[in-house]
Design brief:
By secondary structure, the chain is α+β, with helices and mostly antiparallel strands. Strands 1-2-3 form a three-stranded antiparallel beta sheet, with helices on one face. The longest helix is centred in the last third of the chain and has 23 residues. The chain is elongated, with a radius of gyration of 17 Å.
């Protein structure tokens, strides 16, 4: 038996956040799929892909699955970098950053 992680879907959102859908699969010795289940994660608008994938890898490891393949992480990182370079997405990310900073300042001041 062999376990694998497959990248299935990447959703690029207007604010710069990202949805990632993976499949956790267990394969029989002949390559037939014995078990397949989706594993989803999202990358916050202000978080980098590698940071989120590190958390996902930790969870996968706890479940006895291998890490997200480096090639999948690299592809998602490249897509997100291009997407977040778009002026409209960049402006939305800056707005989120500004709003979160303002909220943090309000909470800190009581």
């Amino acid at each position: 038996m062999q376990k694998e992680i497959l990248l299935d879907q990447v959703t690029l959102c207007a604010d710069g956040s990202v949805g990632i859908k993976l499949f956790k699969r267990v394969l029989n010795d002949d390559g037939s799929v014995l078990f397949s289940e989706p594993h989803r994660t999202s990358v916050d608008v202000l978080v980098e892909v590698n940071d989120q994938v590190a958390l996902v890898n930790s969870h996968l490891e706890q479940m006895g699955f291998p890490h997200v393949p480096d090639s999948a992480t690299a592809m998602v990182t490249k897509l997100v970098k291009l997407h977040r370079a778009d002026p409209a997405v960049k402006a939305r990310r800056e707005l989120v950053k500004s709003n979160r900073s303002a909220l943090a300042a309000q909470v800190a001041s009581g």
